[in-house]
């Protein structure tokens, strides 16, 4: 596998990609130049203009003739010789990452990583949100891994990589429903298999707009996707959580935590626990 790369202005990149598509070159990507901004419920971003970006073309072949062919097409489009070609030795689908120590007796790591004195969640990141690196994910994991979910049903809203679902399944949940608007089934099934789990079902669809059907009531419901999203999901959450069930909310920033939780309490909940790491807040509420 080879990577062809060239530095170009971001304002030109879409036009160049369109011309590459016409020439049957589809594996193109670049990182948009972003400026992080702060908003009411957390962080957003704006895309910068007139910044240089590195456009990359992935050639999924070791045939150098094909590489040279695609390089020439790119050169003719951008009218420049300043193009780099790199052979990629590691073409594994999984993204490698350093083991994550949750400092509670548990580590998130690849199956190859040896652990002698702690428990381990086997995990490969494959691109979905929630690898265990973010403060909110780690705080949720510490709560989950301190619980015993025997005979409990869990709903994980916005599951992303499925790491919270996998932790719940490891902690003996009877059923874990991993819900996401994107199809993350392959990734979750793969990481579930690494931990010998068979108690996770993946639900794909837009729950707010009744795009999916849920057939269970849940003892625990998680939502770790932000304050505004939490407010939007409250009617759905209320329809699936059991009386006296536990709602775990994370992804909240300290400057809007009180406003979001005040809204949640109106649905018949009682705040039981709040934790905070840096500006990120996580809490547990009980359904009254």
Oligomer: single chain
Strand order of the largest sheet: 12-11-10-13-14-16-15
CATH superfamily of the largest domain: Vaccinia Virus protein VP39
Judging by the overall fold, what is the CATH architecture of the largest domain?
Answer: 3-Layer(aba) Sandwich
Q: How can the largest sheet be summarized?
A: 7 strands, mixed
For the secondary structure, the number of strands is 16
Please tell me what the overall shape is: globular
Helix count, per DSSP?
A: 7
CATH topology of the largest domain, by name, is: Rossmann fold
The low-confidence runs, each spanning 5 or more residues with pLDDT under 50, are none
Strand content: 25-35%
Helical content stands at 25-40%
Q: What structural category do the secondary elements indicate?
A: alpha/beta
């Amino acid at each position: 596998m080879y990577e062809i790369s060239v530095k170009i202005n971001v304002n030109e990149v879409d036009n160049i990609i369109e011309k590459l598509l016409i020439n049957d070159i589809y594996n193109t990507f670049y990182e948009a130049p972003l400026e992080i901004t702060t908003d009411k419920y957390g962080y957003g971003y704006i895309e910068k203009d007139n910044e240089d970006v590195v456009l990359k073309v992935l050639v999924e072949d070791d045939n150098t003739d094909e590489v040279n062919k695609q390089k020439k097409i790119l050169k003719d489009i951008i009218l420049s010789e300043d193009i780099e070609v790199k052979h990629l030795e590691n073409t594994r689908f999984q993204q490698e990452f350093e083991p994550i120590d949750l400092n509670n007796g548990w580590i998130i790591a690849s199956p190859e990583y040896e652990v002698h004195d702690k428990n381990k969640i086997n995990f490969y990141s494959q691109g979905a949100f929630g690898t265990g690196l973010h403060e909110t994910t780690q705080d949720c994991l510490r709560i989950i891994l301190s619980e015993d979910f025997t005979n409990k049903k869990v709903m994980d809203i916005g599951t992303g990589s499925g790491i919270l679902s996998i932790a719940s399944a490891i902690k003996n949940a009877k059923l874990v429903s991993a819900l996401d608007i994107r199809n993350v089934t392959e990734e979750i099934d793969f990481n579930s298999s690494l931990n010998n789990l068979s108690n996770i079902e993946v639900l794909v669809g837009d729950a707010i707009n009744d795009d999916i059907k849920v057939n269970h009531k849940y003892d625990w419901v998680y939502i770790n996707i932000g304050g505004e999203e939490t407010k939007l999901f409250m009617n759905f959450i209320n329809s699936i959580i059991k009386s006296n069930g536990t709602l775990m909310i994370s992804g909240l920033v300290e400057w809007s935590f009180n406003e979001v939780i005040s809204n949640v309490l109106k649905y018949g909940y009682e705040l039981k626990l709040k934790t905070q790491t840096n500006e990120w807040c996580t809490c547990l509420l009980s359904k009254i």
